[in-house]
Every structure is written in C-alpha cells, then in structure tokens.
Sequence to fold (145 residues):
Amino acid sequence: MRGVTAADAVVLARLHAAAFAPPEAWGEVALRQMLGLPGAIGWLRDGQGFILARVAADEAEILTLAVVPEARRQGVATALVEAACAAALLAGARVMFLEVAEDNGAARALYAALGFAVAGRRRGYYGPGRDALLLRAALPAETGG
Ligand SMILES: CC(C)(COP(=O)(O)OP(=O)(O)OC[C@H]1O[C@@H](n2cnc3c(N)ncnc32)[C@H](O)[C@@H]1OP(=O)(O)O)[C@@H](O)C(=O)NCCC(=O)NCCS
Fold:
C-alpha cells in the first residue's frame, strides 16, 4: 500500500469506474480536485482499490472508498480504512465520519465491523428515496478485536 498524490488521478479514476456504477463513478478531474483539498490524504493498493479522506482539525471524513470486484472479500477495504484512520489520528483527528447509501449492504457491513455507528441520516442524498446514513467512529477506532 502507498500514499496517493494528484499524479495518481488517472489510476484512481480507472479503479473508481471499476468499483462504482457509471453515475456514481468519479472521473480524473473530480479526483484530482479531491486530492487538492486541504487535508486530503489517500492510500492505494495498486490494481485493487483506494481510499481518500480529509482531515480538518480534530475531525476527519472518508471521501470515497473503492475496491475492484475481483479484489473484494480479501480484506483490501479493511486495510485501506485502517490506514486512513491511522493517518487521520496521526494528523490530529479524533473522530472519523463518512456517508454511505442506506442500501449499500456491503459497505455497511464493512464499516460496522470496523466500529462505525450510525450518527445521522441525510434524506435523498443519493437521489429521491435514497438516503445516506452518516457513520461515525472515534479514533483510534474500536473494532472489537
Ligand atoms: C464496500 C467495499 C469497499 C468492500 O471492499 P472489500 O475489500 O471487499 O472489503 P473487505 O474484504 O475488507 O471486507 C471486510 C468485511 O466487510 C463485510 N463485507 C464486505 N463486503 C461484503 C458483502 N458484499 N456482503 C456482506 N458483507 C460484506 C464482511 O464482514 C467482510 O468480512 P469477511 O469477508 O471476513 O466476511 C467494496 O465492495 C466496494 O468497493 N464496493 C463498491 C464501492 C462502495 O460501495 N464503496 C463504499 C462507499 S461508502
């Protein structure tokens, strides 16, 4: 695993397109913009997946997490989230947030296993009738083992 920079935007866009349905996939320009945000951090497993997060003072947020279908259920996302949480903690964050579609069972199971709990709901966040759940974990995360 390695840290990402704006120079990785093309590689990240390819992974994002493989992981998400077309309307939800982020292109190279959007990813480069995300990487240029103050406090942006990211980790990449070449050919498998990546995570982007942002740290602002004592709070951090996962911006996106993508693992290609062929690399799933092998602990890639777990390793990426743990790397992002560890980096955010080092940067001074004490809590990590993220938004997940309520109907995204895989991501919700992943985050629950990593100690994230529901802290709110954003109605219609992903379109009419598709709510987002706001998840939260204290850092260091308590994964229960
Ligand atoms: C969600 C996603 C990132 C998970 O990546 P992954 O590398 O397969 O996750 P891991 O292998 O680390 O899974 C860890 C645990 O999460 C849970 N989990 C992961 N995928 C699951 C699924 N499809 N169904 C049920 N539980 C799942 C399991 O508890 C799993 O542990 P196990 O494999 O020992 O049972 C991946 O499916 C993905 O990229 N999906 C599309 C994009 C997306 O939804 N991103 C997140 C948006 S917030």
Remarks:
- Strands lie at 2-3, 40-45, 49-56, 59-67, 95-101, 117-122, 132-138.
- The CA atoms of residues 39 and 55 lie 5 Å apart.
- The radius of gyration is 14 Å.
